[in-house]
Write a structure and sequence with these properties.
This protein has helices at residues 2-5, 173-181, 214-228, 282-293, 341-349; strands at residues 27-34, 38-47, 54-60, 67-75, 78-83, 88-94, 100-107, 110-118, 142-149, 158-162, 165-172, 188-189, 199-206, 232-247, 255-257, 266-271, 274-280, 298-300, 307-313, 351-367. By secondary structure, the chain is mostly beta strands. It has 3 domains: 2-118, Quinohemoprotein amine dehydrogenase alpha subunit, domain 2 (Lipocalin), CATH 2.40.128; 142-238 and 362-367, no CATH class; 239-326 and 335-359, no CATH class. The relative contact order is 0.14.
Length: 373
């Protein structure tokens, strides 16, 4: 439960509306979850002007307090709050006086009792202010950055923003180039073998204050690569095998998110073949697929605008997740197993992946060196 609760930190402020029964649930509901340590949770519920439905957000105050979309439904005294991107549900019974909900908080396979009480002006817990974003014209350079060899037994890889720091775990130089320049490993041409075999943990504190945007993170990594790894390169166009991400008949099936158009997307994996995305674009999906899942570049040809929340569940095969250096177990003979990736993307997201050949930009390495710590 503690590890899955940490996923609350990376998600950005969202809102949604669903129909609920006529109980007056609007207001701030708060309670303390005993999940190895005390976690103060707040559900903010508001009534929409149009249609009379309810909107909700969940805030974990002790994990940053950023809001996560919560759908709100009620049937008689039973109230259900669901946070789909984080796999969270809370279901309970509204007290006769309408000021408390006694129920169960569930995330993944774990469940804990939770009592929510309606807050008053005097008792309401203050929500932390949203994190400050980095200025648009801020320099994309690290004030200080460490590059250390990764644990030899480490699996997978990761990149996150942790407080004021940009952190990567178990990443090769090719991984860093892939993120920094938005390319697949097959689009990196030349260079010594160690670029794809030696792994590093990077921790960098930007010179400028605030949370960097996605574009600023890429700029920070480019600066790091070009200074600490002394990379010089040039770009060319080459014909490569690729996948094109397009829109399926009927259009996207993802949930539109208009709350934070300039915020960072939250895209991650709850397991192999279980992706959760918040505030993400189709281009973000294409990037995650080419960096982590597929064996060739992915080109976004959807022309779909805006940001979305979605979950994607599929049964991976042994051609996938090679860049994360994990082994895919043989598929079990389970008639209820999720479909393969291509089918899942169409059925669950309303998009399509199509194999194609296309002229794509490649990064040709002219010179590079191992970094000093």
């Amino acid at each position: 439960m503690k590890s899955v609760m940490r996923s609350l930190v990376v998600l950005t402020l969202l809102s949604t509306a669903l129909t609920a029964q006529a109980q007056d649930l609007a207001g701030q509901w708060q309670g303390t979850l005993q999940a190895g340590k005390e976690l103060r949770l707040v559900f903010m519920i508001t009534r929409n002007a149009a249609g009379g439905g309810l909107s909700g957000t969940l805030h974990s105050i002790d994990q940053g307090g950023q809001g996560i979309v919560a759908t709100v439904t009620a049937q008689g005294p039973t109230v259900r709050l669901a946070v789909a991107p984080a796999g969270i549900t809370f279901e309970g019974k509204l007290a006769a006086d309408g000021n408390a909900i006694e129920g169960t908080f569930t995330q993944g396979q774990g469940s804990l009792p939770l009592r929510l009480v309606r807050a008053t002006k005097e008792t309401a817990w203050a929500l932390p202010a949203p994190p400050r974003t980095m200025a648009a014209d801020a320099p994309t350079v690290f004030e200080v950055a460490s590059i250390r060899p990764s644990n030899p037994g480490g699996q997978g890889m990761g990149l996150t923003v942790r407080g004021a720091e940009v952190v990567t775990i178990n990443t090769t130089l090719n991984d860093l180039i892939s993120v920094a320049y938005g390319v697949h490993a097959k689009q990196i041409i030349g260079g010594p073998e160690w670029m794809s075999t030696e792994r590093f943990d990077v921790t960098g504190r930007p010179q400028a204050e605030g949370i960097p945007s996605q574009a600023q993170i890429r700029g920070l990594l480019r600066s790091l690569i070009e200074t600490r790894f002394a990379l010089t390169s040039h770009r060319e166009k080459r014909e490569l095998g690729a996948y094109a991400l397009t829109t399926a008949s009927g259009g996207p099936k993802m949930t539109r998110n208009d709350a934070n158009p300039n915020g960072l997307p939250g895209v991650g994996f709850k397991g192999l073949g279980a992706m959760v995305a918040v505030n993400a674009t189709p281009a973000d999906l294409a990037m995650v697929l080419q960096l982590n899942v597929l064996d060739r570049p992915v080109i976004d040809r959807t022309a779909v605008q805006g940001r979305y929340d979605f979950t994607l569940t599929w049964t991976p095969d042994d051609s996938q997740f090679r860049s994360m250096r994990v082994n895919i177990p043989p598929p079990a003979a389970d008639p209820n197993a999720p479909p393969g990736l291509f089918t899942a993307i169409q059925e669950q997201l309303g998009l399509r992946l199509e194999s194609t050949n296309a002229p794509v930009e490649v990064i040709v390495v002219d010179k590079v060196q191992r970094p000093e710590n």
